[in-house]
Amino acid sequence: MNVLYIITSIRYWVIHSITIPSLFIAGWLFVSTGLAYDVFGSPRPNEYFTESRQGIPLITDRFDSLEQLDELSRSF
Fold this sequence. Notes:
This protein is mostly helical. The longest helix is centred in the first third of the chain and has 23 residues, at 10-32. The protein has two domains: 1-42, Photosystem II cytochrome b559, alpha subunit (Single alpha-helices involved in coiled-coils or other helix-helix interfaces, Up-down Bundle), CATH 1.20.5; 44-76, no CATH class. The chain has four helices and no strands. Helices cover 59% and strands 0% of the residues. Belongs to the PsbE/PsbF family.
């Protein structure tokens, strides 16, 4: 099909004038309601640093990395 025909097609714009805004609204709702944090398991912005854990979780020694990961995971 010709690209010009698709762009000037009334059926194309009837379909896409509904689907494009609905995809945008669905994405906005997915993020603004916090569902994206729950689905992907990432912490919310206010959960990165708690009262008990104010430091940055860094792995500093590559040979003892498993022990450091265990210590960091216990602090969560």
